[in-house]
């Protein structure tokens, strides 16, 4: 490996780093939110509510985890919510037509992955900025989904399939186990593999990464494909959880996923952030929304509060990182 390659690819990111400090602050914020909500609401610490928070946080995390890799390269995937909708509707149709949940799951994952790959092709081969490429894909997917569903709703799926999103194992929701699995995989991939370090290098300085021999285009194709596949996974979880699919199923999913990534400390400028931080971001966002529901705060205020949290999280993150430099 040449010297310039060594410079472009940082050593494996340690949890005794600036990232660890940022994660500590976010964990502390999550604990403080829990403490406040425990005082304000008697229902917050109930087992049912805690499990509900974990389930909802896991659903947001599935979308946000793949999106984190895209943002680490200084890109953005605005199509994840629309991807969830199309993948869920196609997967649901396959299950209805064939009676095979396994085939439906594979179809949903494949559909999500193909959409992500197309995003990657637009960014790399056509050199369209990721914001524009994925925003255009959002509208394309919305149009395809509404045309495909033609105003219909799919519902009534096999009981075994529904267990994926609504079942329990040893008292914990099955999506929580899936969260732990993909949290572990995502963290190890991003921080302990050469591919993960190359993704960080691309986000930090794409020109230096290219000059060092990193196959930038292939890595970008990879991260967009992973983001799309994770959206496909989320579509399966949502489909089994709701026991129905319709064209607008993904309209409210993109912004919370982006919020979780940003609250978790991943920089929109690339090269900074962790998948574990995104999990904490999803947990903080879910705790706040859950708390507002428990306190009977009008749903009209929830987007406002979410926006304020995102702005504060990004501002505090930038401020603390500047001090550390």
Beta strand %:
under 5%
Number of strands: 4
> What fold name goes in the CATH topology slot?
ABC transporter involved in vitamin B12 uptake, BtuC
Q: Classify the helix fraction into a percent range.
A: over 70%
**What is the chain-wise order of helices and strands?**
HHHHHHEHEEHHHHEHHH
Strand order of the largest sheet: 1-4
Broad shape: globular
Number of helices: 14
The total number of structural domains is 1
Please state the CA-atom Rg, rounded to the nearest Å. 20 Å
Poorly predicted runs: 1-16
Mean pLDDT: 89
CATH class group:
Mainly Alpha
Instruction: Tell me the major beta sheet.
Output: 2 strands, antiparallel
Describe the secondary structure blueprint for this structure:
Elements: H1 3-8, H2 18-40, H3 47-72, H4 80-98, H5 101-124, H6 130-149, E1 154-155, H7 159-166, E2 168-169, E3 172-173, H8 174-192, H9 194-204, H10 206-211, H11 216-242, E4 244-245, H12 254-263, H13 275-294, H14 302-324
Antiparallel strand pairs: 1-4, 2-3
Helix pairs in contact: 2-13, 3-8, 3-11, 3-12, 3-13, 4-5, 4-6, 4-11, 5-6, 5-11, 7-11, 8-9, 9-11, 12-13, 12-14, 13-14
